[in-house]
Amino acid sequence: VEGDIGTATSYSPPYLPTKCNGYDQQQFPEGGLFAAASEGIWDNGAACGRRYHMRCISGRRRACKDGTIVVQIVDVCGKTPCPATLVLSTKAFHGLFNIPIAKINVEYAQ
């Protein structure tokens, strides 16, 4: 992945409704790797359905996992200000980092 540098954290269920597709369960990608976007990525909803390749570059206790994941945007961050560039489903976050509740530095690209 060669792209932008940002931060990621995770959020827990319930994941519905989303700003992209409301209560439709079919919006979630197979494997459960999805995210909510901060305002900078959200772009008034244009980010819905976009996929981002991501990798962890640093975090607490050097707990980054090797490799990359691909997440799909299904929602906008529910907090103002958003605590991270991308807020990942718990399954997506676990694909990048070994500590469940943390804020990590990531590299991401569409």
Structure description:
The protein has 110 residues and is mainly beta. The protein contains two helices and six strands. It has helices at residues 39-42, 90-94, and strands at residues 4-11, 34-37, 51-58, 69-76, 86-89, 104-109. Strands 1-5-2-4-3-6 form a six-stranded mixed beta barrel. The chain is globular and about 35 Å long.
Keywords:
110 residues, mainly beta, 6-stranded mixed beta barrel, 2 helices
Order of helices and strands: EEHEEEHE
Structural class by sheet pairing and helices? mainly beta
The major β-sheet equals: 6 strands, mixed, barrel
Strand order of the largest sheet: 1-5-2-4-3-6
Set down the secondary structure blueprint.
Elements lengths: L3 E8 L22 E4 L1 H4 L8 E8 L10 E8 L9 E4 H5 L9 E6 L1
Parallel strand pairs: 1-5, 2-4
Antiparallel strand pairs: 1-6, 2-5, 3-4, 3-6
Concise structural overview:
The chain has 110 residues and is mostly beta strands. It has 2 helices and 6 strands, in the order ββαβββαβ. Helices cover 8% and strands 35% of the residues.
